[in-house]
Design brief:
The chain is 39% helix and 18% strand. It is of the alpha+beta class. The protein has 2 domains: 94 residues; 229 residues, BirA Bifunctional Protein, domain 2. The strands form 2 sheets. A 7-stranded mixed beta sheet has the order 1-4-5-9-8-7-6, with helices on both faces. Strands 2-3 form a two-stranded antiparallel ribbon. A hairpin with a 4-residue loop joins strand 6 and strand 7. Helix 1 runs antiparallel to helix 2, helix 1 packs parallel to helix 4 and helix 2 runs antiparallel to helix 4. It is elongated.
Length: 344
Amino acid sequence: MIPIIAEIERVKQAFMTALEAATTHQALEQVRLLFLSRQGELAALMAQLKELSVEQKRQAGPALNELRSLFQVAFDARQKLVADLAMRGEQEQAASFDVTAVRSVARRGSIHIYTQIIEKLEDIFISMGYSVVEGPEVETEFYNFDALNIPANHPARDAHDTFWLTIPSLLLRTHTSPVQIRALEKQEFPLAICAPGRVYRNEATDASHNFMFTQIEGLFIDKHVSMANLIATVETFLQAVFEKKDLKVRARPSYFPFVEPGIEIDCSCPFCAAGCSICKKTGWIELMGAGLVHPNVLKSCGIDPEIYSGFAFGLGIDRLAMMKYGINDIRLFQSPKIGFLEQF
């Protein structure tokens, strides 16, 4: 630390001590002459600037400006207080007024990280010609399972630990796919929608699992839609999400009851070139499930699969946020920890 910085701190402490002791106009005038006049301590410090190197000036200049502002604000406040108390004949009370006290500042709210990411994803979808649609979080068994090619006896239901309500056939939705069914029922084609929202699973909570999390899905239905359309759309979408024009995607076979064929979409790691902890040294990140909409799903909505086809894909917003911001505990998103939430 350069010597003038220590001198600034010494003068600051001396000024505050002298100012707090000043309880009359005469005492305040002595403080002004000693610290704020042309021959005062502050002027002497400012005169030393010309003797410093360029690098030292970069450190001392802002510190001196801050000191000058502090002197003026504190002196004006003390001067007003002494005048007010003198008028009421209560000069003795001025000695107890702490001009260095920090005024408490109310915390200002900010947009939650979930909302920030959802709004960004929605903007990307809208730029691609999609509409944003929403649906109820309390769903019927039909929309959550039956219409999505998951009937009562289907083994895929075993994979959904569901929160059932006491009212028969009502549940907390386990995915945002029911929104797709409600949109398909309107049979307005071509159909291009995205559906963000909270979903619920009856599972144990830990650093990577929660009973409530957030998903977003995309759906496109028209005539002659192919897997090539799906891959191109997903690649364009992910390039916009990660702001990387050279980002690549690859597809791996998978199974989801509401699409056929089903695939898992991986993207080239947007954080490294040859492998990092996020992609586990592979250079690829598993990101979403996708596929061509199953004919049975179209039939359940009264749509002829011989005429119309389409694709769907979805991803977890929690996983995307954890990956993007290096967060290692999904529970933090729902916590009341202001220090964590204020970072975003």
